[in-house]
Design goal:
By secondary structure, the protein is mainly α. It is 69% helix and 0% strand. The model is unreliable at 5-11 and 14-24 (pLDDT under 50).
């Protein structure tokens, strides 16, 4: 998992100059912020379902991930919640440039959307 995260960071960093011009609202940069600030939260969520989920994640699993986050001491962190809110309000979860990059590092839209939904719920967004 850490290898995928490093690969994603490298991929996003090298694509940033070109993609920033294409991604409305700086979604590539906002995605980097979420990845960087929500690492512990993503680890907890990944114990329930992976970012690589190809099919929509059932609501029961999202609820289980939210419960796991709330049960973990200190999670979700305010820094994570602060980065998720602008990412979601800018519509970045459906940004075509961002979504075209993520499968290359094993992140699928269904897994991403479920993870973001769990984070939003846990953060009270």
């Amino acid at each position: 998992m850490l290898g995928r995260l490093l690969l994603l960071c490298l991929l996003v960093a090298t694509a940033l100059p070109h993609a920033r011009a294409q991604a409305e609202g700086g979604c590539i940069m906002a995605g980097q912020q979420v990845i960087g600030t929500c690492e512990d939260e993503r680890s907890v969520i990944a114990s329930v379902f992976p970012l690589s989920a190809n099919e929509p994640v059932p609501a029961q699993q999202i609820d289980a991930a939210v419960a796991a986050l709330k049960a973990a001491q200190g999670l979700p962190a305010q820094t994570c919640c602060t980065s998720v809110a602008p990412f979601m309000s800018a519509g970045c979860s459906s940004d075509p440039t961002l979504l075209s990059i993520l499968p290359g590092v094993g992140i699928q839209p269904a897994g991403l959307n479920a993870t973001l939904t769990a984070l939003e719920e846990a953060c009270g967004i």
